[in-house]
Design a protein that fits this description.
mainly alpha; Arc Repressor Mutant, subunit A; two-stranded antiparallel ribbon; MarR family transcriptional regulator; WH_DNA-bd_sf; DNA-binding transcription factor activity; WH-like_DNA-bd_sf
């Protein structure tokens, strides 16, 4: 019996959660015990140009207050700092060397987790899984700095694929 569409969505989410949880645990073992996946999203947004809490909030689809709280926590833990930038002398958020080190470790850990999956299901099956998911997701880049997508209004996602009835 075929699984439901909701089951498929939960399997995909479960795959993400499995990898994200394993990566978080391994980051902790490697000395970054104070970060969670949401912090990675924030660091990537800051590295990509979100220079203040307002910009970060827009990129993460959270309130300015929530973004400011995240920034304060990341600054306290040494992952970001404020640097004076340009003629205006405005302070802009920057990822610190510690923040970049954590992001680099995170990338390495995900490569290790991918290798574990490859060992579990085999190279051919993993490659096929990746090809199928890439085909289903499409060529639009996945933004790693926007975890709030799930709460956004559908009109915001202009690239969303419509559901097509096969009987039409």
């Amino acid at each position: 019996m075929a699984r439901s569409g909701a089951d498929l969505a939960l399997l995909l989410l479960g795959g993400f959660r499995s990898m994200a949880d394993a990566a978080t645990a391994e980051l902790s073992r490697r000395g970054f015990d104070d970060v969670r996946p949401a912090h990675e999203f924030a660091l990537r947004a800051i590295a990509g140009g979100a220079g203040n809490a307002s910009e970060l909030g827009r990129r993460l689809a959270v309130t300015k207050q929530a973004a400011a709280k995240t920034v304060a926590m990341l600054e306290q833990r040494g992952y970001v700092s404020f640097e004076t930038a340009g003629v205006s002398r405005r302070k802009r958020l920057q990822v610190t060397p510690r923040g970049h080190a954590m992001m680099k470790q995170g990338e390495a850990i995900f490569e290790e987790l991918r290798a574990q999956w490859e060992k579990e299901i085999g190279s051919a099956d993993l490659r096929k899984l990746e090809e199928i998911l890439a085909r289903l997701v499409g060529s639009t880049p996945i933004r790693l700095d926007t975890p709030g997508w799930i709460a956004q209004d559908a009109t915001y996602r202009t690239q969303a694929r419509p559901v097509v009835d096969e009987q039409e």
